[in-house]
């Protein structure tokens, strides 16, 4: 399989990628913990089967100090002991918000209440936006057949700065 369109090599695609990254940069400025942000992006990417995004977010999280044990257990977060209750709440919200088509009610009141127990309103807005943005990015990357395996930490930030 080959990449259908390389967003970074297309002028419009590059502009779009930079604007999407700007939303991510704004979310990084919130009080939502960076490790939680990394876990959420990785989890949504796993659910959506986005090899490019799994590669990118795993490597960026590792470069930021995340442990291999935690990264390896994100897919089985419900059956592991390495995530805090706050992280579990964010991962539960990620699962339900990512699997909207699979759940007749969408995000349950129980899952929302669990997240609201640990996060402020601003952090919840950041979390919901992060989940929405990574899902959009996953769908773009999968549709355009962006392949995983060759990403190097810092490449996206370097691209955006240019």
Primary descriptors:
AhpD family alkylhydroperoxidase, 65% helix, 0% strand, AhpD_core, AhpD-like, 8 helices, globular, 162 residues, mainly alpha, CMD-like
SSE inventory with pairings:
Elements: H1 11-28, H2 34-48, H3 51-63, H4 68-73, H5 85-98, H6 109-118, H7 121-143, H8 155-161
Average pLDDT taken over every residue: 95
Order of helices and strands: HHHHHHHH
Q: Which structural class is indicated by helix and strand composition?
A: mainly alpha
CATH topology-level fold name: AhpD-like
Quaternary structure: single chain
Global Rg:
15 Å
**Tally of separate domains:** 1
Amino-to-carboxy terminus distance: 29 Å
Poorly predicted regions: none
Level-1 CATH class name? Mainly Alpha
Count of alpha and pi helical runs = 8
- Please provide the count of β strands: 0
Percent of residues in beta strands? under 5%
C-alpha geometry: globular
Domain Carboxymuconolactone decarboxylase-like: 25-96
Protein name: AhpD family alkylhydroperoxidase
Pfam families: CMD
């Amino acid at each position: 399989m080959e990449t259908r369109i390389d967003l970074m090599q297309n002028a419009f695609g590059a502009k779009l990628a930079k604007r999407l990254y700007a939303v991510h940069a704004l979310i990084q400025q919130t009080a939502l913990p960076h490790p939680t942000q990394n876990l959420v992006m990785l989890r949504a990417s796993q659910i959506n089967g986005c090899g490019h995004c799994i590669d990118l977010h795993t490597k960026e999280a590792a470069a930021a100090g995340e442990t291999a044990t935690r990264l390896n257990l994100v897919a089985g977060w419900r059956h592991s002991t390495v995530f805090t209750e706050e992280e579990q709440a964010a991962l539960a919200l990620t699962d339900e918000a990512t699997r909207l088509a699979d759940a007749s009610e969408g995000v349950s009141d129980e899952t929302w209440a669990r997240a609201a127990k640990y996060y402020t309103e601003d952090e919840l807005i950041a979390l919901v936006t992060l989940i929405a943005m990574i899902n959009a990015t996953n769908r773009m990357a999968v549709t355009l057949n962006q392949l995983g395996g060759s990403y190097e930490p810092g490449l996206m930030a370097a691209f955006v700065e240019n």
